[in-house]
Design brief:
single chain, 95 residues, alpha+beta, Alpha-Beta Plaits, 4-stranded antiparallel β-sheet, two-stranded antiparallel ribbon, 23% helix, rRNA-binding
């Protein structure tokens, strides 16, 4: 699996923007990726040093259209903390 296959997209919310001061960045990742794969992918793509990775498995919400019900797809979220001597990720700097 490629590093770009593991990291799907960043999460841009008020909470995630507030955590950037502590060098914590949030990403939507592949649902089958483990913490070691996520750490290697972030280090390879952004050229930073990762200290710690926390993962959260999010279940999809139930939605309805009239009488039909369905479920949105589930996803996995990863909160990546960088080391103190690591540089910040430039992708988030302009936001």
């Amino acid at each position: 699996m490629n590093a770009y296959d593991i990291i799907r997209r960043p999460v841009i919310t008020e909470k995630s923007m507030g955590e950037m001061a502590d060098k914590k960045y949030t990403f939507i990742v592949d649902i089958n990726a483990n913490k070691n794969q996520i750490k290697k992918a972030v280090e390879e793509v952004f050229k930073v040093k990762v200290d710690k990775v926390n993962t959260i498995r999010m279940m999809g919400k139930m939605k309805r259209m009239g009488r039909y019900e369905g479920r949105r797809p589930g996803y996995k979220k990863a909160i990546v903390k960088l080391t103190q001597d690591s540089k910040a990720i430039e992708f988030f700097e302009g936001l």
